[in-house]
Write a structure and sequence with these properties.
Layout lengths: L2 E5 L14 E5 L2 H31 L6 H32 L12
Antiparallel strand pairs: 1-2
Length: about 110
């Protein structure tokens, strides 16, 4: 599934000189597919949040669209609650795929 290897560079002069060992990370196909799917879901959710709050804000300028504005704000608020649910499901799925592997890098999307 996943494999992490580091190699020592004999010309390594430390972090100030750009040093540090080379790191090779190999991820299983299944893990990569899961990461891409959840990233896509998260991006779509973020775009939806932005659209609902922006359109809802503009709707408040017009008295006849006030109810639409409130409705869009409620939908946007629900989507804000979906964000942590997406992250939780992602972590559970990745944990199943990467059992026994080094911990994942914290990338919350």
């Amino acid at each position: 599934m996943s494999e992490v290897r580091t190699t020592d560079d004999s010309a390594d002069d430390g972090p100030q000189e750009g040093g540090g060992g080379n790191v090779t990370l190999t991820l299983g196909d299944r893990e990569i597919v899961l990461r891409h799917r959840f990233e896509l879901i998260s991006i779509a959710n973020e775009i939806g949040i932005a659209l609902f709050f922006t359109i809802g804000s503009v709707a408040f300028y017009f008295e006849e669209l006030f109810n639409l504005g409130v409705t869009l704000f409620v939908i946007g608020s629900v989507q804000l609650g979906i964000r942590p649910a997406i992250r939780l499901v992602r972590r559970v799925q990745l944990r199943k795929v990467t059992q026994g592997m080094p911990g994942e890098v914290a990338r919350d999307f």
